[in-house]
Amino acid sequence: MIATEMDLKPNLNAQSEVPLYRQLSEHFKILIDTGLVDRGERLPATRELAGQLGLNRTTVSAAYELLEEEGYISGQVGRGSFVTGGGGRDAGLNWDSVLSAPQVAMRPSVVPGPLISFATSRPSEKLFPLDKFRASCEDVLGSADLASILQLGSPGGYEPLRQYLLDEARTEGVAGPGDDVMITNGCQQALDLIRRVLVRPGDRVGLEDPVYPGLKNLFLQAGADLCGVPVGAEGIDLERLQRVRPKLLMVTPNFQNPTGATIPLESRKSILRMSRDSGTVVVENDMYGSLRYEGKAQPTLKALDTTGDTILLRSFSKISFPGLRVGWVVGPKTFISRMLEAKQLSDLHTDQFSQAVLLRFAQSGRLEAHQANMLVAGAERLLAVRAACELYLPQGARFSRPQGGMNLWITLPEPLDSADLLPRAQRAGVTYLPGRFFAVSEPHAGGLRLSFAGLDPKQIEEGVRLLGHLFSEELDAHTGFDHRPAPAMV
Amino acid sequence: MIATEMDLKPNLNAQSEVPLYRQLSEHFKILIDTGLVDRGERLPATRELAGQLGLNRTTVSAAYELLEEEGYISGQVGRGSFVTGGGGRDAGLNWDSVLSAPQVAMRPSVVPGPLISFATSRPSEKLFPLDKFRASCEDVLGSADLASILQLGSPGGYEPLRQYLLDEARTEGVAGPGDDVMITNGCQQALDLIRRVLVRPGDRVGLEDPVYPGLKNLFLQAGADLCGVPVGAEGIDLERLQRVRPKLLMVTPNFQNPTGATIPLESRKSILRMSRDSGTVVVENDMYGSLRYEGKAQPTLKALDTTGDTILLRSFSKISFPGLRVGWVVGPKTFISRMLEAKQLSDLHTDQFSQAVLLRFAQSGRLEAHQANMLVAGAERLLAVRAACELYLPQGARFSRPQGGMNLWITLPEPLDSADLLPRAQRAGVTYLPGRFFAVSEPHAGGLRLSFAGLDPKQIEEGVRLLGHLFSEELDAHTGFDHRPAPAMV
């Protein structure tokens, strides 16, 4: 017999980062694995179960599809879905018990259809200088070194690129005599390698709060003791940092992801002083540093650090082609030599052809020319998103004022929850990442990130207009007041 | 005062995988960090210390250079080397205490100069079809998809390539309806991701013994309980496997690295049966499978496995261009979905341009044409290395008879130790990797790997001739007999 309606009633949480259909499929998997639902039983029809649980029918269908994909059930046209067994195959492994703990879901599901997407912090591909890329490829294809570029390389990276980046870092004053450079597959791999060589379970790691989820999830999986340090308009809260005294501090002084905040010079110095006092290893993520559209650049922590201990991360991803995974790390030689061991075990070395192409792209001046274009385009987009926020966000909503980078952070007034509102936003034709995805110690329920760099100014205006309208409506419904923004005075 | 000679006397081990100069520098670091040697003290002159310790003077110099690089000492011309402090910079971090446990050294140091190198299992770059590579690049550069290829991708890989490999795996019968495919940065990253999702500290992992060190070191760092399963001419020892009952078994059925051994059909079936009984996850490394130069191909474990649980690893590295890091994994969907989470945290996704180029390389038939050439060249090299081993190795030495792949394994008669002989071999102009590098549970002191694929037949003959001469001489010195091989009878 199929389990009763009571047994089936899952404990679903619409607030969770895990989408409902996935929660539902997990629930069924447990019922099947534990034998509460037997092999051969028919599951309720999607319409029926959706009615019972008060869910959208597509949610139930998606859960059933997942169960079918994973071999738990099998659908027969006109007859319904039948339980075929836990894990699907006779006498095979129980994968759920074999696999280590699952990762938290990384991103919300996105409804299909054309959307204005503020969800991804990446440059617009319309801005890619394809001819300059082709020319750089041709240079490498015509080079006498082509065969050796295609041969097995070394963990530190393609040596001419590594040397170029080291020279550049020395010229800029971010690499001292005790420093070395290594290449990674973008910034994400640098973070992962740092986790390997520096973080043991229980180690206290200070993270900006809110923070990029790919960073949080990485350290969470490593069993680190994560301490969120709140990020305000002027970067991380120094008083909180003083109390946290982490073993490792991950900090993004320029145009932080997701808030867009930049840390002023004096605070940079304070961070270094505090970290020195507490024996904290400082990792400076400078992904966005060269994308400053206005205001004056501040020196990096790495350049300010007289001990030379700061680790600096940079990448070509945001300033050229994200599909080529090439970043680099500047840090003390002892540290880099341990990182190289981790890199070798991780994937031997980074793709050499892309390294060689990016070296040509940089050496030929094409990168510089492209960056100049990126700065013009970025400035337009930044103006557009700020203007649209001023114009369309409801009274009570706040938003950050980045001077560069790719992200702006909105804080909605209570009781609005950006995760709850996301499905409606998507139906209206816009998507974003809700604050909860970036949460470390605080929930950031009212926060949301607008990644504006991948859109053109018109899309930005239209997207923010739609969001502003939705947020105002929702706020009105909660309070009975009219929250539409007053007409701009200027 | 400088510590006395007794204090300084380090406990050096010439048998260790860690080079002597590095052992010596570690010894000094401890003396400096613990204060046994004070800041400002002068270290003994290299000549003096070399004499005291019975070391080569260059070993001592190399140790001092490393200490200087890492900021422990500072050399002044004509005055000697002075201790500047632990970690080098005032009030900075003590990196040695901050970093997690160091990795074992991966490779022996190689003396500079032109060498016939049997040390790396990779194809010869002389065989790279550069024109075919260029043509594949041009196809991608001219494609309408170029901008999206250069944009941020997805963790599973460049979708057209992923789909191509999945279709191919289905056609070949290695992917069933419950399987999926994902792209990795070559095979090494697949191993690393598998470690992440399947291995917890203390888990028993069965490895071939001897085995590729990049595999052993990876699981060693993860705190796994490594159990070596001896590899003979017909692959792993089934009786031993029966007793080991690992959680995870890593196995290379075709042309295993380092032995070149291939597992016969019946043993493949037995491995699957045993693994099913013991609930073992089987990972089949099939890096070399398509490089069969003679004999009949056997079906993969994955194709034979009726449960569908086997995980299959393949790569473009050995069959095309190792400098492009593109491999793939075929496995059950539940497993692959967890692998994708690990991949995303690891480095977001694999380089997309290289994936697109390799897809064109395969789709255009260029890969197939190149593989045909590789098989002809490989067969010549295999014949050359086998013939040279017959001709030049001393009596009492044994060697494997691979039918494909890139590696052949020699076992020298006792008491010869291939690690001890390596410096002499390098002085004679040849290098290889000694058996100890591949050891899991047995030392393999007399073993050594000849990676023959990167050399041409003449170099192979000359290299084996030099080695044979050296080994014969050494054996004569030990026994007083003449071990030169008898002239060939055919």
Describe it.
With 490 residues, chain A is an alpha/beta fold. Chain A folds into three domains: 5-98, Arc Repressor Mutant, subunit A (Orthogonal Bundle); 116-127 and 368-479, Aspartate Aminotransferase, domain 1 (Alpha-Beta Complex); 130-364, Type I PLP-dependent aspartate aminotransferase-like (Major domain) (Aspartate Aminotransferase, domain 2, 3-Layer(aba) Sandwich), CATH 3.40.640. Helix content of chain A is 43%, strand content 14%. Chain A has helices at residues 5-8, 20-33, 46-53, 57-69, 95-98, 130-141, 146-150, 159-172, 186-198, 213-221, 238-244, 265-278, 301-304, 333-347, 352-363, 366-392, 418-428, 457-479; strands at 73-76, 80-83, 116-117, 179-184, 204-209, 225-232, 235-236, 248-251, 281-285, 311-315, 327-332, 398-399, 407-411, 430-431, 433-434, 447-451. The first copy, chain A, has an eight-stranded mixed sheet, sandwiched between helices. Chain A has a four-stranded antiparallel sheet with strand order 12-13-16-15. The first copy, chain A, has a two-stranded antiparallel sheet with strand order 1-2. Chain A is globular, with a radius of gyration of 25 Å. The relative contact order of chain A is 0.12. Residues 1-6 of chain A have low confidence and may be disordered. The interface between A and B is large, with 84 and 84 residues.
How many domain units of chain A? 3
Shape of chain A: globular
The description of the largest β-sheet of chain A is: 8 strands, mixed
Q: Structural class per helix/strand content of chain A?
A: alpha/beta
Rg over CA atoms of chain A: 25 Å
How far apart, in Å, are the first and last alpha carbons of chain A?
70 Å
Mean pLDDT of chain A: 90
Oligomer: homodimer
Percentage of residues assigned to helices of chain A? 40-55%
> Can you tell me the CATH class of the largest domain in chain A?
Alpha Beta
Q: Which two chains touch over the largest interface?
A: A-B, 84 and 84 residues
**Percent of residues in beta strands of chain A:** 5-15%
